[in-house]
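Give me C-alpha cells for this 373-residue protein.
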Amino acid sequence: MVDILSLVIDTIPFIAIFSVISISLNLEYGYAGLPNFGKVLPILGGAVVAGSLVPRMIQVIFADSPKTDYIFNNGPASVELQAYMNAHPASSLLVMLLGIVIAIFVGASLGYIAVLPAFRLREDYLAITLIAIAEIFRAVNRNYDPILNGTRGVSVPDPLGWLGPKSIVYLYVSSALLIASLIFTSYMLRTPFGRALRAMRENELAAESLGINTKSLRIRAMVVGSAIAAAAGYIDTMYSGGLTVDKYDRYLYTFIPWLMVLMGGAGNNLGVIIGVSIYWVSSRVVNFYKDQILSGIAWILNIGGGSIDISWLDVTRIERLGFAVVIILILYLRPQGILPEKPIETPGYRYVASIFREGAVRGKHVDKDSGEG
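Here you go.
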C-alpha cells in the first residue's frame, strides 16, 4: 500500500508537467493548426535554464555562495550549492522565481526564432523545418561542453529543497503551474485572438480575406506555446534533479505529447489532460509491475508445457510499441479524441442558439395545437 501511494505521489507531478506541455501543443496544433514536431525545442530551452543558468546565477549574485566550477566539477559543486540553498531559503526562492521568468522568455524567443524561417511554409514542410531546428539545438547543447558538460550532463541542485520531500513539494508546484496554464489559455482562447486562431486553422485563405493577419497569428501562437512549454521544461528539470540532453529526446518530448493531444481531443484542454493521465498511469503501471507482466506472458506462452525463454523481453519496449499502435488506431477510428472540441460560446453564438431554441419550442407548440384541432 505504501509503495502504491508513493507511486501515485511521484506520478502526479509528471501528469501535471506533461499536461502543461500538451496544453501548449494543443494551443499550437489544436487551435492554430500548426504541426509543431519540434516541441522538444522550447522544453529543452527551459531545462537548460534550470540546469545550467540558475546554479551559476546563485554563484554570481551572492558573494558568499560556493564558487566551485559548476559544469566541469559538477559533483562537489552541486552538493555545495544544495547546502547553500538549504541554508538561504529566501535567496533560493528568489532565484527559483527569477529562473522561471527567464525560462519563459527563453522559450518564447526560441519559438519566435523557430517559426520565423518557417512561417511561409505549409503543414508538412513546416513540421520538417521545426524538427530540424529542434535537432540543431539539441546537437549544440550536447556537443558544447560549457553548457551542460556534454553528454555527461549535470546534477541540478533544488532551490526548493529546504521546503521538504521533493515529491510533495513539486506535486504542489507542478499542479500550480498546470492551473495557471489552464486559466491563462482558457481566457486567451475566448478572446478575439483565440477565435482568429480557429479561423486560421479552419481556412487560412478565408481568414486572410476577412483581414486576419495569419503570419502574425502563427508567430504569436508559437511564441505563447513555446513559453508555456519552457516553463514546464524548467520545472521538469528541477523535479528530476539532473539534466542530460539525451533525456529530452523526440520520443518522450514530441511524440508522446502528440499522442496525449490526439488521444484526449485536439482543441479541448480537458481532453488533453485526460489523455496525459491515461498515458502516465498506463506507463507507471507497466513499469511498476513489469516483472509480474513478464511472468504472466511466460505463463501464457508455456501453458501447453513448453519452455519458451522470454528473459530477453523488455516490457518497456512493448509499451512503446503499444502506444504507437494506439495513436494509429485513434487517427483511424476516433480522430476527434476522447473529448471533442467544443464551440466557443461568444455572445453572438449564444444569441443564435437562443433563436434556434425558441424556434424549436414554437414548433412543438404549433404541432401540439394542430393535433388538438
